[in-house]
Amino acid sequence: MFDLILNPFITMMALFYSVFSQNIVLAIAVFTILIRLATSPLLLQQHRSTAKMQELQPKMKKLQEKYKNDREKLAQAQMEMYREAGVNPLGGCLPLLVQLPIFLAMYQTIIHALANTPYQLIDLSGRILFPGFDNIVPLQNTWAGMDLTLPPTINPTYALILPVLVMVTQWVSYKVTVPEIPPNEDGTPNQMAQTTKTMANVMMVMFGFFSLSFSVGISIYFVVSNITGMVQYTLLGKADWGKLVGKSKVKPVPTSAKTVDGNKIGSSSTVKPASARAGTTAEARQNPMSGAISKTEKRKNNKMRPRSQTN
Amino acid sequence: MNTSKPSARLSLLFLALLILFIGVGCVPTRLGTGWASLRLVDNNILVTYNDRILLVDSGTGRPVQLTDNDGRVRTNQDGTPLRWELLGQPTQSQFFASPVQMTDSNEVALVVDYQGKIFNANLKQACFSTASGSCVDNAPFVTIQGKIYTDVVTDDERLYLPLSEHDVLALDKTSLTEDWRFITRRGVWSAPLLIGENIYFAEMGHEFYALNAENGTKLWQVDLGGAVAASPVFYDGTPATDYADDVPAPTDMNYNLENGRFYVGTFNRSIVQISMDGAIETVFTTNDWVWSTPKVVDGVLYTADLSGTVYALDTTNNLSLIWKQDTQTTGIRARPMVTQDSVIVVSQNGIVLWLNRADGSVTLRQEINEETLSDMLYVPPTESRPEGLVVISTINPNRLLFAFTVQGQQVWLYPPAS
Questions:
Q1: Does residue B31 surpass a pLDDT of 70?
Q2: Distance, CA of B349 to CA of B301 (rounded, Å)
Q3: Chain A residues interacting with chain B (CB cutoff of 8 angstroms)
Q4: Is residue B275 less than 8 Å (CB to CB) from chain A?
């Protein structure tokens, strides 16, 4: 079943290898970029959905507080809220799940295309769907003195730079592409933000470990994939490179609309310096996009309040 | 207070990552490395596979037991008979190449592992040994630069090692020092041929070479248009005398070099006929890659490709097609075996077919239901067994060897079913 995705991918890889003067690294890079571009709509949809969900957080909290003892009513109210807002609650996850087999196939493509043992090559023989690539097999699997089928630990010492690059690009990608989740209304750190941060760190270490354990070809894929993702986010205007140097263009604001009014600034001030608060408030007012979220929320909340109270 | 939906999303994300990592983790175990090499030694079958070399009685399919100088079976401390088994575990070795018996001694052999370590082994006692044959725990070894995926060949003076990444290496057989190294573009995955004073081999980088075996000087090379992973064959028109002529040819045989031709299958979907001076004479196009070493008997070349098609080609008439048979199986990697009436082939998915030699029609079908990639071994008849055997090796160590009579009746299975 998985072969339905994998075999066309391997054939495509052979095609790129053939087109790009039998340079396997170039073939991996171009194919990775194309795959990332092809999945851009899914990425965009995921991003939009996440942003919408984030907008709904204050309302969600209110509903949770209101129906904390009645899970059934809470679920109904949540669904109603999603319906009104035109949001699919799984909208952020489904694109990810759709992308998963594609990225898995990409990973497996590299493993299979760089067949290095007789058994692997026998396996590859049935996977190239069109004749015409027979004379390029087996694909050249060495590059810059490294055997791309072996882990960096078995390659020359300088190959160890690749796991480092994987981790660095993974970390930078997280920093610039994942929107900062604001603290809670009472100034305490948002648990979702904490979880996301922990997961990002775990993933960074995990990918570093994988890069050490698996072939160098996979590390190249990880690096190119991470860089392409960052470029995509930048082109979409979703990347915040300022976060790398502590100058984020979007300052995190507490999730409640009350922060705009300043009524509850005191609680936020326990975790933020005054300058940051001023910046946040000013930017929220100046920047139609960043401010609009809070102001719109406020308006929506005001509209929602009597309705939810009547419920 | 935490929200439930973000947690659900994160849980899904974790689940997705878990699936990814499981998928990632499964890859290295799914893809193996190679398959067994079989060789007949004193009517026993020497099986070289993965991390061990073992000896199986060709008559019974039972493991050969170790005996002492008086012929008594050796046992361990609890009285269990000891099997003839050379394990790679102590030296962390994996084997593709059959041991090479030394001409001056039937007891001591050279064992070459995948990583390029060369050991002495005492074949009588099934142990790694010193050069003189004394069994030792930490056997000395020589390491060469390169890995080995196929059988090595030897003459009186040298070992010729085809290296999987690139090059062919010739070592002095006694001192194991390098005599010469011929640099190739890509790996050499098939055993070279020694014909007369020359060595002939093909590489994954499309080239077929002829070298002077003594000093490694190139005589000629020719581009075959595709990678070659199967050994070439040499045919000089000599009629077949028996079916067991699969071992690399010794140099002292009398060849009719004037009439000789090389035949080699390529990944470029072809069988190529090459003259003794390195000219491509004829190319026959196949349906798929050819990884099967051809077999030439009485002027007819039999081969198979990875689409599962078997071909009979006339070597006396520019490789013209005599017949072809689509076996409706998976690919065929193993070399066909030719008997008086039949061409026997085994497919990757373990279907053994007996084809009529005259027209390629299927006369018998047996299923062993195991993945099969190794070349078959022919075991000649003995006094007690009037019919020869066809031994087939799978990649499953629990059902490693199947023996059939040449007429297609299964005789034994190794290891025996408990």
A1: no
A2: 24
A3: 53, 57, 60-61, 64-65, 78, 89, 92-93, 96-97, 100, 103-104, 107-108, 111-112, 117-123, 125-126, 131, 134-135, 137-138, 191-192, 195-196, 199, 203, 206, 210, 214
A4: no
Amino acid, res. A263 = N
pLDDT tens digits for B390-408?
999 999 999 999 999 999 9
CATH number of B145-285: 2.130.10.10
Strands (E) located in chain A: 142-143, 146-147
Domain with CATH 2.130.10.10 in chain B: 145-285
Phi, psi dihedrals of residue A141, rounded to the nearest 5°: -115, 25
SS (H, E, C) A218-254: HHHHHHHHHHHHHHHHHHCCCCCHHHHHCCCCCCCCC
What pLDDT score does B246 carry? 47
Would you state the pLDDT for residue A79?
86
Closest by alpha carbon to B110, among B90, B138, B130? B130
Yes or no, beta carbons of A117 and B10 under 8 Å apart:
no
* Cα gap A103→A9, rounded to integer Å: 11
Helices A94-113 and A118-125: crossing angle in degrees, nearest 10, is 120
User: In this predicted structure, what is the pLDDT of residue B57?
Assistant: 95
Q: Which of B267, B307, B373, B395 to mutate to test the interface with A (most CBs of A within 10 A)?
A: B267
Q: What is the pLDDT of residues A42-83, one digit of tens each?
A: 877 777 777 787 788 788 888 888 888 888 888 888 888 888
Nearby residues of B53 by Cβ (< 8 Å), 6 or more positions away = B46, B47, B85, B86, B88, B95, B98, B99, B111
Q: What is the distance in angstroms between the Cα of B335 and the nearest Cα belonging to chain A?
A: 15
Give the residue-averaged pLDDT of B99-125: 84
The residues pairing with B390 across neighbouring beta strands, listed in sequence order, are: B378, B404
Among candidate residues A2, A55, A96, the one with its CA nearest the CA of residue A182: A55
Helix (H) or strand (E) holding A107: helix A94-113
The C-alpha atoms of residue B394 and residue B401 are separated, in whole angstroms, by: 6
Is A117–B32 a contact, with Cβ atoms under 8 angstroms apart?
Answer: yes
Provide φ and ψ at B120, rounded to 5°: -95, 145
Count of C-beta atoms within a 10 Å radius of residue B113:
23
Is B32-143 assigned to CATH 2.40.10.480? yes
Which residue's structure tokens are 């890995």? B147
Instruction: Provide the ipTM.
Output: 0.83
Phi, psi for residue B103 in degrees, rounded to 5: -70, -30
B residues 146..185 contacting A (CB < 8 A): 149
Instruction: Report the C-alpha gap between B307 and B291 in whole angstroms.
Output: 11
Write out the residue limits of the CATH 2.40.10.480 domain(s) in chain B: 32-143
pTM of the full predicted structure?
0.79
Angle, helices A71-85/A57-66, rounded to nearest 10 degrees: 160
Confidence class of residue A281 from pLDDT cuts 50, 70 and 90? very low
B190 touches B149 (CB < 8 A): no
The type of residue at B6 is P
User: Does any CB of chain A come closer than 8 Å to the CB of residue B331?
Assistant: yes
Task: Please list every residue in chain A whose beta carbon sits closer than 8 Å to the beta carbon of residue B162.
Answer: none
Find the residue in B nearest to A135 (Cα).
B226
